[in-house]
TrEMBL record:
Name the record gives this protein: Sedoheptulose-1,7-bisphosphatase, chloroplastic
Keywords for the protein's UniProt record, in alphabetical order: Calvin cycle, Carbohydrate metabolism, Chloroplast, Disulfide bond, Hydrolase, Magnesium, Metal-binding, Plastid, Transit peptide
Domain Fructose-1-6-bisphosphatase class 1 C-terminal: 157-280
Cofactor(s) this protein requires: Mg(2+)
Species name: Chlorella ohadii
Assigned GO CC terms: chloroplast
Subcellular location: Plastid, Chloroplast
GO molecular function: fructose 1,6-bisphosphate 1-phosphatase activity; metal ion binding; sedoheptulose-bisphosphatase activity
Record's catalysed reaction(s): D-sedoheptulose 1,7-bisphosphate + H2O = D-sedoheptulose 7-phosphate + phosphate
Gene Ontology BP, a term: fructose metabolic process
Amino acid sequence: MSVCEAIRTIAYKVRTASCGGTACVNSFGDEQLAVDLLADKLLFEALKYSGCCKLACSEEVPEPLDLGGEGFSVAFDPLDGSSIVDTNFSVGTIFGVWPGDKLTGITGRQQAAAGMGIYGPRTVFCIALKDAPGCHEFLLQDDGKWLHVKETETIGEGKMFSPGNLRATFDNPAYEKLIAYYIGEKYTLRYTGGMVPDVFQIIVKEKGVFTNVISPSTKAKLRLLFEVAPLALLVEKAGGASSCDGLCVSGLDVEVKQHDQRTQICYGSKGEVRRFEEYMYGNSPRFSEVTA
């Protein structure tokens, strides 16, 4: 509930806050924008107010802070896609909730919950709980209340793709062939440059695939703790699948060894994740019975 309150406020701040640089960088070397810092502050305050958060860390402040509560620890990306706020594309908040008081030596599968806020023409709160079926979508109403509008339990097959880090096709032949397949099969391109809307559309449309891979000249940018593991829980609870770290394993099963751990990822229907693994790594043992 506390995160819901923060997301509602962030939605307003995104619409009205400055998008100018702050002349400072976070510990990863990324320039922080004023709206990033606002969102970060709001989420830390909300989690402290909840009373049930022991540790919290964000992509902007990756060293865990003791918030004095007990029960859970939370990792979040306060405003994923903030570099496209000024273009008025959709952006979002991502968070993962783990039981206990540590945020390393864990996997995404141990999450108690994960969620994201999507700030676009509509403000949406999307959440998945470990012990409840489905992925749930809530829509922010004019009166400030959240309305439950959709529960997704199945992601089927469909020709829609969101290819991240396309520059990797220059020296990653397998990725180049995969992208050529999508184009040759007349897949619809739906890519905004924001991870939240690009992954969220898979859940909403109940089809599609999102890819972000590396190559010898392009390194991984996506953080396992703050982005990849929480989104993996959302997609898989919705009935989809993920493939992480070049290992043909779910994004929920890669151990978080350090807060800044980066990785490559694919989200989508089970058939599309099977195809991704077959093109990229030669086989897909987990999905051998799934029709791609």
